[in-house]
Amino acid sequence: MPSTPLHLDTPLFRTSASYSASNKPLWLKLDALQPSGSFKLRGVGRLCQHEIENGAREIFCASGGNAGIAAAYAGRALGIPVTIVVPETTSPEVRQSIEATGATVLVHGSVFDEANAYAIERANARKAAYVHPFDHPLLWEGHGTLIDEVVAKGAVFDCVITSVGGGGLLAGIVAGLKRNGLSHVPVIAVETEGAESLHASLAANERIILPAITSIASSLGARQVAQHAFDLPKHHVIESVTVTDAQALAACLKFADAYRILVEPACGAALAVADVHADILARFNNPLVEVCGGIGVSLEKLKAWKERLL
Asked: For residue 3, what pLDDT is reported?
């Protein structure tokens, strides 16, 4: 790892047992407090540093939001220009946040896949580095630092709960567990209904492409999970579960009330597990929840979602 990573060693907090229906105290790894607003800075920062160390003078990245702002933050910190390609579904507020962080924003395509293809095309044309938002070994190495930090703090945990989009965070957590001698610790992988590309793929025993993303948890909106993430359950105990948009939103609101931190529904999915799937946690004593964060949230958005869903 580089000697000066761009991400922070984020706080680790323990809830009371009464916080959730699981009646278990939960370890919360607060990556919502990263400078970029989400865990993405861990891996994206690592990959951007690697590209610059190897001569890159410009970076392109496709993103629905969180990887984009992480790459923008990395480019600003490292002093090189960054262009983020977002699909049309990315909100004006998120586009403005990425631009405010110092990157150029291009809008292309109706879905991430189209934005991603265009980002690769533009990077090749300009002989720039291309940074994938979730499918690269150095991303996973960077994301795994969250496990390094929890272990370094001496926290004992016996499962990890994480949201899954394209699978980069899941891959990083498994890599982090492995390098800390914790390959026996299961991971509970959570998606919202309408964005459950991993769950559907595991059920079908093949890596499927969802016809569309219908969940409000747009940060989980990869229509196809990365091959590496799909293969992980063959080597590590991973339990795939889903929650509804309403359940993810309820978890966001409860978390905001309790800890005064706003997170996206994509993050709320992981926080919802201890209430929605309390039965799954019955066999564990010290669950660790990755509070992955996300910039696609505001008081107004939470209010609008609440009026629609709850």
From this structure: 59
Single out the residue of 245, 187, 248 nearest to residue 214, CA to CA. Answer: 245
Q: Which residue is listed with tokens 């390094």?
A: 148
The pLDDT of residue 110 is 87
Judge whether 220 and 195 are in contact, CB under 8 Å. Answer: yes
State the Cα torsion 95-145-19-281 to the nearest 10°.
110
**How sure is the predictor about 103, in pLDDT bands with cuts at 50, 70 and 90?**
very high
Element (H, E) at 38: none
The C-alpha atoms of residue 107 and residue 259 are separated, in whole angstroms, by 35
Residue partners of 62: CB distance under 8 A and separation at least 6: 68, 84, 85, 86, 112, 115, 116, 118, 119, 120, 132, 133
- Gap between the Cα atoms of 96 and 93, Å rounded: 5
Q: Spell 269-299 as b/e; 16+ CB within 10 A means b.
A: bbbbbbbbbeebbeebeebbbbbbbbbbbee
Alpha helix stretches (DSSP H) within 135-226: 137-143, 145-152, 168-179, 197-204
Q: Does the pTM of the predicted model rise above 0.85? A: yes
Q: 27-30 and 287-291 as β-strands: parallel, antiparallel, unpaired?
A: parallel
**pLDDT number for residue 2:** 46
Question: Helix or strand or coil: residue 287?
Answer: strand
- How far is residue 79's CA from residue 245's CA, in Å, rounded to a whole number? 39
DSSP string across 109-160: -SSHHHHHHHHHHHHHHTT-EEE-SS--HHHHHHHTHHHHHHHHTT---SEE
Alpha-carbon distance 233 to 80, whole Å?
A: 38
The token pair at 85 is: 């390609």
